[in-house]
Queue: 2 jobs
Job 1
Amino acid sequence: MSSKDKTIGVIGSGAMGAGIAQVAATAGHKVIVYDNNAAALAKAKSAMWALLDKLAEKQKIKPEAAAEIKTNISFEEDLVHFKDCTLVIEAIVENLEVKQKVFAQLENIVSSGCVLASNTSSLSIASIASACTNTSRVVGIHFFNPAAVMPLVEIIPAITTAAAVAQQSKAWVESWGKICVMAKDTPGFIVNRVARSFYGESIRMYEEGIADIATIDWALKQFGGFKMGPFELMDFIGNDVNFKVTESVWEQFFFDPRFKPSLTQKRLYEAKLFGRKSGRGYYDYAESAIKPEPLKDAALGKMIFDRVIAMLMNEAIDSVYLRLATKEDIDLAMTLGVNYPKGLLRWADEIGLDHVLNTMSSLYELYGEERYRPCLLLKHMGKEKQKFYTQQMA
Ligand SMILES: NC(=O)c1ccc[n+]([C@@H]2O[C@H](COP(=O)([O-])OP(=O)(O)OC[C@H]3O[C@@H](n4cnc5c(N)ncnc54)[C@H](O)[C@@H]3O)[C@@H](O)[C@H]2O)c1
């Protein structure tokens, strides 16, 4: 069967569902989008049509291509239309019970060979699959926002997923032009787990009065080459979304202090200071607002960078140690999923694992908190001054 003969079902026509539908239809598939909210479905259709017209107008795609994509996608108000789908990707509200209900319903509609995938950011694939009789065909296919633009997709086989289903899903999504990494079914998968300390450690330093938000943002851009500082990025993502992911990862790791959310962000969330979309978050986005100036103190900036990068690297190294994914996939995920300037493991080689270990050990000694414990693999490799890669990138 050529890839274009497949019909792809997408459940949920929100930000992610619409993007995923666009990707699959652009690859030439017939795509059916279903949403239980008729107004949301109609809105998604008109937004997508407008987007395709704009892309054609700006000559980003040919008018014929835009027309073909439109022909490929249909919007339906009933799941029965999914009966001939080869793959269904669910992108509905992040609620386990609701997702389980939809998967159980879906299993009675599609054929026995259809693969059922969830785009969940934070729920376990095993728990979603448990709603089905045949759990072996349920897999995680996690796109990043905006799905049409971001190249990375995490493929997450649950403990019950057949190996062939995970491999087949990877091959399909790669044929759509995406770059896939394989991740274990653990909280936050790769990106949403490893990235937590970029935000958490920055907030911690702000709370301790080590520096203000503008200075911390400056330090990570200046010394780390990050495109956005952590506070700018949290305001961009939305403090509601970012706080909920942090809280969920922390809870799912049985309240491991490494992932502990902050009261600072919780208060922003409670006050509905979500960031750019609400006009105020860590920063004020009113037209009249004056952006705070950073204190450009090189020694302070370097210390801030050292602390955040050591925390990020410790998490990436722990992920290798716990076989969450391969070192290559962890590096790919962080560069393509959250635009880090370098893969954290290759970067750790550059900085020196002994240096990363020293930073973590000093923090651990200073605070006496589990949050700062260097992971076992970092201890071992740091002491021996080992590297993850024998060859540096050109
Ligand atoms: N937004 C992101 O940045 C992002 C990134 C990666 C993954 N995700 C995940 O993707 C999923 C969707 O997120 P989103 O941001 O697109 O949400 P969204 O709120 O924009 O859209 C969700 C859509 O699902 C529909 N829906 C809700 N319950 C339904 C049901 N029972 N049956 C059919 N449709 C239903 C809603 O009407 C809505 O249109 C979530 O699991 C989320 O965690 C989100």
Job 2
Amino acid sequence: MEFIVFDLEWNQPEGADEEVRHAIPFEIIEIGAVKLDKELNLIGKFSQMIRPQVYKEINWRIRKMLNLQPGELERGRPFTEVAEEFLAWCGSDPVFCTWGGQDLTELQRNLAYFDMPPLAEKPFEYVDVQKLYARKMGEKRQFSLESAVDEMGIEKDVAFHRAFSDAYYTGMILRALPEDIRRTSAAYDLYRLPGSREEEIYLRSEDSYTFYSQGYDDRNDIINDARITTIWCPRCGGPSTKGRFSGDMSFATGGRSLKRRIKWFGHMGRTMHAAGICPEHGPVISALKIRTAGNGKYFAEKTTSCASREEYDKLTEQKQKSDAK
Ligand SMILES: [Zn+2]
């Protein structure tokens, strides 16, 4: 097993055909990566430019941000060649690590657009270093890579905003993170959705769990599915379905579900909420997002957490406001 920490640079279309833009909203023009062994020693580097084939005109903002030199891109090689070389370099058992989740999505979209084999046929675990860093900071927001490098006191000896440098810094942050934070690495790439109930994912931590469902053709089928709308206490309950569990803690199954004292409300296009009260552990709040996958299907991302009385009261107020509308 090796860690492949990678970063992409891409070009955005201007005035491209709607159908093309939908298939490939960002065309990759550079791949940079570092390879780390199990002990997180740097054991390899990868850096290649890609000559764009779909959006040949480089957006001026991107040209400026990347500080592209004249002729630099033109000397790049076609995506299929570079991607093939990159994936071969990754080896047979890579654990992908990125700053945020978008690079993995765009890599897979580009692979699909150029008719290359997919990275995987189903969801796979990866390391979202940005998420780990936020956990270390005790905040939920998205930090910029540069601010994290500064805060962790990592030497800035390579310029930012090029694929290789950003991959390198992401790798250095991963290495500098405390081990207990690193071990909570579970993030799932959902470009390919769980194909069946058996492949559905439950990510569990001490006082919350996140559930990713299989795909649905219609959003309404999600909010009408009792399996998804039911809430369990993260500490003592649990769905009795067989799912894929991640993390060290075993998940109690078949526990009694909570009565929804605050019924599901909110906009289907954004986040919906519901809440109950566990007699033993107090308020439990569930947040449901309906997301769209690479194949156009809908899936549920539901996070259920133990909450404070304050948070519960705030949600009660929001619910009353929403009912009054
Ligand atoms: Zn409980």
